[in-house]
Write a structure and sequence with these properties.
Layout (H helix, E strand, L loop, with lengths): L3 E5 L3 H11 L4 E5 L2 H10 L4 E5 L7 H11 L4 E6 L4 H9 L5 E4 L4 H16 L1
Parallel strand pairs: 1-2, 1-3, 3-4, 4-5
Helix pairs in contact: 2-3
Length: 123
């Protein structure tokens, strides 16, 4: 299985950091808005999606809801700098989000979560 990961974040520095940290582990595709992420998913077969929560125009949960509506098998991970318990609980309870990770993330912890997401897809 080609381990493609889509990472969506409106802050370009975060996209660059993610690419630098994980380019040897996965095929990384990045988008700086949820809309660009949705456009990429129309043309690319990507099963693990990581999204920032706070983004202009469409937040991470709305973005993930749109993905899951059409592709419930995709594994979505939410990154956030804020503990927004209500939004998070809703996303987890509705099984939209596989895991959420607090920013700033730790490379080893994030790699473990991404690897477990790919294992989940293999079942």
């Amino acid at each position: 299985m080609d381990k493609k990961v889509l990472y969506v974040d409106d802050e370009v520095i975060n996209l660059e950091l993610f690419k630098i940290n994980f380019r040897n582990d996965y095929s990384i595709i990045v988008a700086d808005s949820a809309q660009k992420g949705l456009d990429i998913l129309k043309n690319e077969d990507i099963n693990v999606i990581i999204s920032d929560l706070k983004m202009p125009h469409m937040n991470g949960i709305d973005f993930i809801e749109r993905i899951k509506r059409e592709n419930p098998e995709k594994v979505c991970i939410l990154l956030t700098a804020f503990m927004e318990s209500e939004a998070m609980l809703k996303a987890i309870n509705e099984e939209l989000v596989y895991r959420y990770i607090m920013k700033p993330w730790k490379k080893d912890e994030l790699r473990e979560i991404i690897d477990s997401a790919f294992k989940r897809l293999e079942k």
